[in-house]
Amino acid sequence: MSDEDDIILSELDDEELVQQMFDDLYDGLKEEIEEGVNILLERGWQPYDILTKALVGGMTIVGADFRDGILFVPEVLLAANAMKGGMAILKPLLAETGAPRMGSMVIGTVKGDIHDIGKNLVSMMMEGAGFEVVDIGINNPVENYLEALEEHKPDILGMSALLTTTMPYMKVVIDTMVENGIRDDYTVLVGGAPLNEEFGKAIGADGYCRDAAVAVEMAKEFVARKHNQANA
Ligand code: B1M
């Protein structure tokens, strides 16, 4: 999409640089994405703005062309890899806010689903907001969630699904929690591009999170409510 040889990223103004990063993400150029992230940081951009405006913005374009059959899995994998390179630079910066410990969360992508960028982003933002996060990865059957809940006893269970075919599995997890008599011990938050609020309600989740920022806000709200109830 771009002629890399001619472009010196540091010579571009902010708007041009973000535009170029969209192209570089599209082309799966990890080193260029890392360089772009570092340049924006040097220019005083907030890590969260880089994440949402440059990286998530670029991935939205990739997603549209993937949907339209212009990009295919190998290219999207390269784009995802480039995105992860940029996220790795931002992760410690988002986590070092010095926020007081808010609570804890176990999070994982459901069975049959290997998308993990959104989940990783939620984990990063939650850690930055002071939550302890146990990330159980991708493709999780219900047993994995139950084991992690038993072991870590978090305040919140987070589930991610990016496919219309895998999102119903969230209900399997919640129903099993009900059967095992542990549903009310946890706040269950769900997220992922194909979900919506109605779906969240229908499967019995406590909340649907449109994005990582909403996940943090909801998590804080639920934990505060739980503490108030405990102190009442
Ligand atoms: Co896939 N894929 N993919 N893919 N992929 C989608 C999801 C798709 C919408 C693309 C499209 O057609 N436009 C489509 C799903 C269609 C559908 O179900 N209706 C799709 C498909 C079809 C597939 C395959 C089936 C393709 C194939 O093999 N033919 C296959 C399935 C593999 C599987 O999982 N079994 C597949 C594979 C892949 C790759 C491996 C190539 C790669 C994943 C790499 C990786 O994750 N490591 C990939 C990617 C990258 C995408 C798109 C392009 C981008 C997803 C992403 O990372 N977005 C995606 C298109 C799209 O979503 N527009 C697509 C950026 C991320 C920051 O956003 O994940 O939405 P998101 O997370 C947000 C919120 O949703 C929310 O917060 C996050 C941050 O703001 N959130 C949560 C997410 N999880 C949360 C959990 C929470 C709270 C909030 O818990 C509390």
TrEMBL record:
The keyword Zinc does not apply. One of its GO terms (cellular component) is cytosol. Residues 102-232 form the B12-binding domain. It holds the Pfam family B12-binding_2. Residues 8-102 form the B12-binding N-terminal domain. GO terms for biological process: homocysteine metabolic process; methylation; tetrahydrofolate metabolic process. Its EC number is 2.1.1.13. Keywords: Cobalt, Metal-binding, Methyltransferase, Transferase. It comes from the Bacteria. GO terms for molecular function: cobalamin binding; metal ion binding; methionine synthase activity. Gene3D superfamilies: Cobalamin-binding domain, Methionine synthase domain. Belongs to the methylamine corrinoid protein family. This is Methionine synthase. The gene is metH_1.
